[in-house]
Amino acid sequence: MNDRAALDLLVSQGPLTRTQIGELTGLSKPTASQLLARLEAAGLVRTTGNVTGRPGPSAQLYEIDPAVAHIAALAVDQLGITAAVADITGQVLGEERVDTDAVAEDAPNRTAQLVARAVDGALAKAGLGREELHGAVIGTPGALDPGTGRLRYAPHLPGWHSRALKEELAEVLGTPITIENDVNLAAVAEQHDGAAQDADDFVLVWADEGVGAAIVLEGRLLRGATGGAGEIGYMPLPGAPLSRGGDRSAAQADAGGGFQRLVGSPSVVELAREYGDPQVRTVAEALAHDEVRAEVARRLATGIAAVVAVVDPRLVVLSGEVAQAGGEALRALVEAEFTGLALPRPVLRLSDVDGPPILLGALRTALAEVRDAVFRTG
């Protein structure tokens, strides 16, 4: 327990002296010295210079050895895969983007090929090989059903629906694989580095090409019996026809109804055209119109109210392309729509993550997993 406490401190605070580790853990100087000697002998920590500028002898600094382990984080979308490789401290060493058309649609094991190309490209930029990889987390639309092993709610990702997908990818990369819903990973990023750092109970609402939510209760993600908790894009709401058949294509799902049909990126652009601007091409252009922004805010508030009525979170974080394009003006309008409702009124914030949230969430998750494995066995 003492060893792990010291390792966690070195991860979170960077290089520390023996005295600092002792003070932060409450250990005596001899015990802290023995602890550091064990960790150094195990190859988990190394010395990294001395503290200077103080009276008396300089003190050695200790840090986690970055080469102890490396992880890969991947974010999947309809157009391709982005991969990042980092060391155990979280330092990103290489990134690679591979478009879906990089491998022919009829190629055998196409999904595995795309994933391997993305990871190998990132490893090459990091100066590493697959044998130095200790784990990978892949963020993808949809949800991996724990009962069947199949990816649900993501029919627009051909080749990703094998029952043995996780095992196939692990075999190709030669390392353990975790497949996680992309919006859940965006919530992990907000929890660690963004707008939800002070909240144990919050909902992240993702409005982009697709629409979904991540629900965090008592600091833990709620996944549901089949992994589908938070699939609010299919949620029936006034103003949109029912969405039937959860395994249809993305285009069919968008046209068919549900919350996604009201606030997804294509629907926001379509709304602006209906309001009289046929030249609109982007969500940002659409939300520059006051009447469009007001209508999208009403729609978002309606869907969020349904979630709030069931979950009662302390905080709701707005994320995805629609939230980014609408900015504070859209957030304030959504908040105003809650005025007078006979419902709890959660704090409403915009995403505050510096970087791509899904990839950052995958990175955070992969680091937590590999640290647990390495620090436990080191």
From TrEMBL:
<dbReference type="InterPro" id="IPR000835">
    <property type="entry name" value="HTH_MarR-typ"/>
</dbReference>
<feature type="domain" description="HTH arsR-type">
    <location>
        <begin position="4"/>
        <end position="77"/>
    </location>
</feature>
<dbReference type="InterPro" id="IPR011991">
    <property type="entry name" value="ArsR-like_HTH"/>
</dbReference>
<dbReference type="Pfam" id="PF00480">
    <property type="entry name" value="ROK"/>
</dbReference>
<dbReference type="InterPro" id="IPR036388">
    <property type="entry name" value="WH-like_DNA-bd_sf"/>
</dbReference>
<dbReference type="InterPro" id="IPR000600">
    <property type="entry name" value="ROK"/>
</dbReference>
<protein>
    <submittedName>
        <fullName>ROK family transcriptional regulator</fullName>
    </submittedName>
</protein>
<comment type="similarity">
    <text>Belongs to the ROK (NagC/XylR) family.</text>
</comment>
<dbReference type="Pfam" id="PF12802">
    <property type="entry name" value="MarR_2"/>
</dbReference>
<dbReference type="InterPro" id="IPR036390">
    <property type="entry name" value="WH_DNA-bd_sf"/>
</dbReference>
<dbReference type="InterPro" id="IPR001845">
    <property type="entry name" value="HTH_ArsR_DNA-bd_dom"/>
</dbReference>
<dbReference type="InterPro" id="IPR043129">
    <property type="entry name" value="ATPase_NBD"/>
</dbReference>
